[in-house]
Each structure stands twice: as C-alpha cells, then as structure tokens.
Amino acid sequence: MFICQQCGKESLQWLGRCPTCQQWNTFVETRVTSSAKSIKSSAPLRPARELSAVAIESTDRLSLPLHEFNRVLGGGIVPGSLVLVGGDPGIGKSTLLLQVSDLVTSVHGKVAYVSGEETQRQIKLRANRLGIKGDSLFLLSETDLTAVLEQVEVLSPGMVVVDSIQAMYLPELETSPGSITQVRECTARLMQWAKQSGVPVFITGHVTKEGAIAGPKTLEHIVDVVLYLEGDQLSAYRLLRCVKNRFGSTNEIGVFEMKEKGLTEVANPSQMFLSQRGTETIGSVIVPVLEGTRPLLVEVQALSNPTSFGQPRRTANGIDFNRLLLIAAVLSKRVGLKLGNQDILVNVTGGLKIEEPAADLGIALAIASSFRDLPIDPGTVAIGEVGLSGELRSVTQLDRRVNEAARLGFKRCLIPRTGVRSIPIPQGVELVTASTLREAVRVGLMNEKTPGGNTGSQPEDSDSSLF
Ligand code: TYD
Ligand code: MG
Question: How far apart are CA 122 and CA 223, in angstroms?
Fold first, then answer.
C-alpha cells in the first residue's frame, strides 16, 4: 500500500501528487501486515447502553497552580484524557510540559516523562535551568511504545508525558517512526491506555511546514484535546491555544512569556501587548480583539509610502492579506484616499495574528492615518467590521471589548453606530459612533487644528480638506 504522509490517503499504486491534499511526493510505500490490522480490532465488544443509565465516574479536574494552563484546558486536567500539544520546533513544548510535570508532582504524585528526542542529560540540563529538582518525576528514554507502556504500568504515575509522538513507534508496524501509520497507531494506542487507566496523557507533536501536526490532521480527531503553542520565535511571548476540547470550550487562549527560567504566565496580556507602544501615534491604532472569550488589546500599525518602482506592494503581517486588499480598496473607493500608488504595510505588533473582521476599522484607520500623516488620539480604540460599500458593521461581544478598553484606561471607543444600542456604556469611556468608514476616518484622525480629535459634530462636507 502507498500512504500519503500528509493526509493519510491510501492508494495501491504510487502517485506523484496526492489527489486529496494536492501535496507532491508524499506517498510512501507501507507494508500492511495482518498484525497491523489486528491492532484495531483488539478492543473488547461492549453492549449498547441507554444514555440515561450511563453513570459518570468522578471527573474531578486536576487543577494546577498555573492558571493560564487550567484556563486553556477548561478548568484543569481531566483524568484519562489524551491531550496533544502541537507547535513549531523550538517554540517551547518540552519546556511547558516539563514545567507542568513538575507542578503535577507537587499536587498529584508521580509523573512519567517519556522522551524520544532528548537524552536524560539534556532534560536534566533543562530542568536545572527551570529550577526543577525532579522528585517523583521519572524520565524514560525509550521510543518503542510497547516498552514504554510496560514501564509506565510498573510506575503507575498520575500523569504521562510523551515528548514527541513522532519519535514513538510500534515494532509490529513495518514503517519508520514519524510516518503517518506509526503516528496514528501510537496515538490510538495511548488513547486506549489513557481511557483504561484513567491517567491523563500529554503528547507533543511537531507542526510540519504545511502547518499540520505530523503532516496529517488525522491526529486531531483521535485525541480529546488539541492545544497549539504559538508565537514568534523572535518575540518572547507564547500563546497556548485550544482548538479542540472534548471537555470544555475551545478558542480559549493562555498567554505565557518565555524567560530564562522557562514559561511564566502573563496575567494581564493586554498590558503586555501595549507595553512597547511608543508615543508616536501616526499609523498606530489600538484594537480590542477577542481570543476565545478573552478580549485582548493589540496595536495595529500601518505604513503607507509612495511606490518607488513598478507595482504598488501590500504587505500584511498578522492580518489576512486579502483582508488588507479589501480594506485598501474600500479606503480608495469609498473614502477617497488615493492609495493606488502607495505601498502599504500593515503589522500587528507582538507577532499576534488577528483573524477577526472586528479589526477592520482599526486597520483602515491606521492606513488612513499614515497616508494622511495625521495622528490618532492615543486614548482611542477602534472596533468595527468594514463592508464593501464602505459601511461599518457591528461586531460580536462589543461590550466585552469596550470594557477591556475601559479597564486599561482608554477614554474613547470608536464603534459602529448600529452596535451602540446593544451595549451599556461603561464608566469613563466616551462612545464615538460612525455609520460609514468615511465618517469614522473623519472622527478618528486628529486634525492639527483641533487637537483631541474631531468629535464628529462638523457638517458632512467640511471634511473635503481631509481627503
Ligand atoms: P523547547 O521546549 O525545547 O521547544 P520544543 O520542545 O517545542 O521544540 O524550547 C526551546 C526554546 O526555549 C529554546 O530555543 C530556548 C528557549 N528556552 C528559554 O528561553 N528559557 C528556558 O528556560 C528554556 C528551558 C528554554
Ligand atoms: Mg521538544
């Protein structure tokens, strides 16, 4: 059999390009033996049961003194759960799990830390850096999963960490470690074990350059919880994002900072994202975005510059490129900014990625501000989706965003007019509304003549000088 290492498609003949995931050169010959097939059918047959008669064993979550981690998991570690921690190589997965292991040993007993990638010496060195002594933390340097599980049974720990599922293999499968068959079967085996023993198991997985764990998305449906550790290699903060959770809500994020002594929690992330903000507010807008249920204030910067050669260029860092094209087009057509001969660069500081359309207005304002060379009041935040006809659309959970801005001391919120009725006005914040992007640009940009910003009280035509 030939199996695509990206998506798991099976084929009886070798194919240069996978018809399912369109990747080239991903088919690898795999010998399918009868023993490999028998693994799947080894689970005992269980009779059907009525839902009302199903008893729930206690699912007391194991809550750790690491608040951000608990929050991402939906309140703590669920016994018997299989959690996949994915991320780029070097982002800090091993560091995070070593720290978590140490916390578990202090509240819950022994931890088995299986490392298929690093020697025990390397882990010891890391532990020294993290200030972890390692009582009740047992290291296993083994890549044969059958042997691992045998040893883990003997140890009977309260938690198991398998550092990199890609390094594990089952000898009965005749493929190399890291291949899709191995990774899938190893994960399924660990899942079975976790459910039988009631012990939580954490596995790490590298994201390949296509952005999926172990090539395939196939692991995501096997495990209970999928967490991604994200962040810019160059910046210190790390986001732990939950994309699947069978025991709680997804879309939660935890914010950490990588320091010399490992990952530390960031209790007030908005403050962190804003801490580097300079005093120059031309082309810089603060936008409250929602990450899961959590509002975060981030800074969006834009720079527009006359094109010196050929085609004008657009560069988007941290926002969707097509979104930038859309917003630039609306600014040209509906607001009247002549951006056709301008290079436009947009950057979200701190390396964060914004996917919400709620940031549209902020991006548009930043571009307009840079293009017009007019500052934006530093005490203002902007919220709103921009429509193709230049209208401002309301966004979800406006009140949360406004409250977060108020909490961090912002004085003005520029929001779509349609949204204003739905929210209570928080203390100390002035809500400035606009129904079109044109109007928003007019009230958002500070005119040199009227420091403190226009309040939108001028008649509609007086803004012609602005454009
Ligand atoms: P690591 O956990 O090995 O990454 P992964 O398991 O995801 O591949 O993290 C490696 C990076 O973390 C490394 O580049 C150095 C950095 N780091 C610190 O900055 N401080 C620390 O205390 C530790 C242990 C690592
Ligand atoms: Mg690692």
Answer: 28
